[in-house]
Amino acid sequence: xxxxxxxxxxxxxxxxxxxxxxxxxxxxxxxxxxxxxxxxxxxxxxxxxxxxxxxxxxxxxxxxxxxxxxxxxxxxxxxxxxxxxxxxxxxxxxxxxxxxxxxxxxxxxxxxxxxxxxxxxxxxxxxxxxxxxxxxxxxxxxxxxxxxxxxxxxxxxxxxxxxxxxxxxxxxxxxxxxxxxxxxxxxxxxxxxxxxxxxxxxxxxxxxxxxxxxxxxxxxxxxxxxxxxxxxxxxxxxxxxxxxxxxxxxxxxxxxxxxxxxxxxxxxxxxxxxxxxxxxxxxxxxxxxxxxxxxxxxxxxxxxxxxx
Length: 308
Fold this sequence. Notes:
It contains eleven helices and no strands. It is mainly alpha-helical. The longest helix is centred in the middle third of the chain and has 37 residues, at 99-135.
């Protein structure tokens, strides 16, 4: 496969989303490769993971400089995730060759995307609750420096193992599934601390999965080069825009794309896909406005409200 300009343009847009939210790399890029560029699922996973191994350090360095990384959590996550990510590649290969393994990877990817979309909703709800508790004086303002939490190694390692397996098999989860698990284990961490910790632990995790796919997957250098040409400047631009962009709008758009991609990967008919997505477009905003009012916020968020 020669250098692909449309693919580089698509990866540029996805890179912006990653820079803005810290999420959506594998969850967007892999289905885009499969659905729009007719890349085989295993090839898409392999090439996307190698590209992510180059992309992830960009955002990680920013968070390390800002002090929004809990290195203790990073250490125990990597104890589980690094070997599990490599093992995930072997599990994918053990499922079979040819059409059989491609079908399994496609289904696993769709399930991971649905989990990621659900995780985005859970993440937004938890942040809204956190903001309401601070506003009402039921919780102390969150600290501005490095997060101070008591690390519980066993559940953190377990999260790393499960997340690593999913990432190794599908390339999805390093920026979405694991961060949701961290939110459940450590609800006192701020969103920026969760993103920073997750991004840093994702560097060795994705690197391990990338090595596994280079050795045992279906890695293609030309495909990965096209991804990097677009995604690296996209991530850089997204990181610089992150302080100004309406985060709620980005999260909703990302969740919508994840759901649409999962439905198509599961071979849901166009008619049923349109019905599901139409229902989401109509009822999801109404439900979110009701949730905001339930917790004492205006139904429509004011401009600049980061809990929109």
